[in-house]
Every structure is written in C-alpha cells, then in structure tokens.
Amino acid sequence: MKYWFNIDNIHQTVGPIFRTMKWLGFLPFTLDASANALLLLRMRPSDAALLAGWQLYIGSMFFSGWMETVQELPMSKIMIYFSLLMYVVMSVLTSVIQLRLARSRAKIERLLRMIRFVDELLEQLSHGVDHSRQHLGLVALIVASFLSSLGFVSVEWTVSWFAREQTPVWKEFFHLSATIFYYAVRFASLCPLVVFIGGLLALRTRFRKLNDAFRFHFDTARQLDDDEEDDEVDVDGTARDRLRTVAVCHDGLTEVVELFCDIFNLQIISACVSYTIFCIFAMYSSVALVTQDTSGTQFVTIFYITACLHYSSHILPIMKLGSDVRNEIFSGTATYTMIMTQFELAVPRFFMGALVPDQPNATNLLAPVT
After folding, report:
1. For residue 104, what is the DSSP state?
2. Coil, strand or helix: which one is 41?
3. Can you spell out the DSSP letters for 181-240?
4. Who is most buried in 12, 142, 191, 236, counting CB within 10 A?
5. Residues 6+ away with beta carbon under 8 Å from 249
6. How far apart are alpha carbons 3 and 329 in whole angstroms?
C-alpha cells in the first residue's frame, strides 16, 4: 500500500500503462521512474524479444492456411472478402504501430520530460497535479477496459455456444488458430486506445489546472491592487512573473499536445479503420437478417454488433475527451489574452503562433523563468 500513496511524478504515474503496453507488443521499453534519470526508457533484451515475438506471430498467421478456410465459409462473397480485409488491415496496422512506437523512444522521452516540466510549473502556481490520484485512475481505466472487453467477448462466446448446433459458421470460422489470432489482434489494437484515453484525461486535468491558475492569480492580483495601492509596483511585478510562468506552462502544454498527437496519431487512425469495418459488418448483417432470418445470420449479426459496441466503448470517450481538451485550450487562450491585456503585456507567443508560422517552442522559453 505504501507504493500507491507515494506517486509523485508523471514517470511513476504511467508505470502501469507502460507495463501493459509492453506485454502487448507496444512500447517495448523499461521505464526508469527515478527523479533524475538521464535515460528514461531502455530497451532490454526481454523487451526486444516481446516485440520480435509479436512480429513473428502476426507474420506467421498469413501462412497458416486460415485465409483459405475463411474463403470457404457459408457466407456471401462480400462478407467473406470483408472478413479477409478486416484480418489483413488489423494485422498490418498492429504490426506497423508496434514498430513505429519502438522507433519513437526519443519522442516519448521528450513527452514525459515536458509533462514533468509543466507539472513543476503548476506546482509553482500552487495548482499542482495529484499524481497518486491520476495513477489510481489510470489503473482503474486499465481494469475497466479489461473487464468490459471480457464482457463483450463473453457475449460473443455465449451466442456462439447456443449457435454451435444450428449453424456451421461457428465450426468453420472459429477454428483454434483463427480464434486466438483474431482476439489477440483485437485486444492489441484496443490497447493503444486505452493509452489515448489516459493521455487525454491527463491533458484535460492539466489544462483545467492551468485555467484555474489563470483565474486565481488574476483575481488575487486585482484584489491586492485595490487594497494596497501603495505597493502597486511590487504587486504588478509579482503578477507579471506569475503570468510569464503561466505563459511558459501553456506553451509547454501545447507542445505536449503536439508530441502526443505525433506519437499516437496512427493508433487512432487504425482504431477508426477497424471501427468502420465492424460498423459495415454490423449494418450489412443486420440488413441480411431482414431478408434471410437464419441461425447463421443471427449469429453473425450479434457477433459483429457486439464487436462494434466494443470499439464504441473506446472511440466515444476519446471523442468526448478530445472535445474537452480543445475547449480547455480555447478558454485558456481567451482568459490569458484578457489577463495580458489587463496588465499591458505583450500578446503571448502561444497566441501569436496561430498567426506567425515560425513559433519557438517551449524549450526556448525556459530561460526567463529560471
């Protein structure tokens, strides 16, 4: 229990997700969560072996003969071709994402260091992040995703159990190798979505903390200015220092967003592709159920609708959290611009970045703060 209440930085917070992703072939690194680690991520031989094992497994399935079995299923040719397309697309994208993340060690390290830098600035603004709470939330997210996935799979297997005598689809389609391969790739493709949800939650929390700091320090400075007119120069100078800290913090957060999207953009594209394919399957099988109400059609319809709902349980939260982060960015920019105008400061760099192409990043703003 002592471990759970001694989480004091972002490196310790993301430990559970790194370990989970590693076992599924993503993020094949060992994370050093110490405070002053020069190299945060190291690829040990065991990490490389896990990545190589996943690559060999995905590649070997294209030579195991299951593709020929799928072509002999008692379904329409369109459904057969879509099934093959689903397998191929999910497999190739999963393999590519695993390799791409393995080559993104420097970007991931920079992302973690930037988040830690932002957290330190928020501490200076008296609005620090509760890392223990975020760590617990991340663990709860992983457990909830696992349990929901287990629930959806249980529904599919329950339906298949009752349909095993009425339809040959179950006997032909779910032979052992195809079953293991299908669920392994499906779970692996959903795992990065859990990371994406956790990342958006962390970004939303930090933007809200920063916006609270905007309003808190702006109101405090204004009250002090009204009550202590004799110290007007000192108050104004203190407020300027705080606002410069806020400027650097906001610029750092925007850079974190850019890095996060650059690292994980392919994962969300892969999820959307898989989600689209499952939705097409579900709609097509539902239409077929109207014209051909057989036990095989019922089984296929329930199976693909369940898979579609499984992906929806991850895609829809991402859409909601993405909208929240965007709104926090916009509200923060508006609030900060008002504050800077109030104190007669220059327009902040992160606001001018939308108009000026060559915008320096947050690393160029560190010197004035220190």
Report:
1. -
2. strand
3. HHHHHHHHHHHHHHHHHHHHHHHHHHHHHHHHHHHHHHHHHHHHHHH-GGGHHHHHHHHH
4. 191
5. 118, 121, 122, 125, 210, 213
6. 33
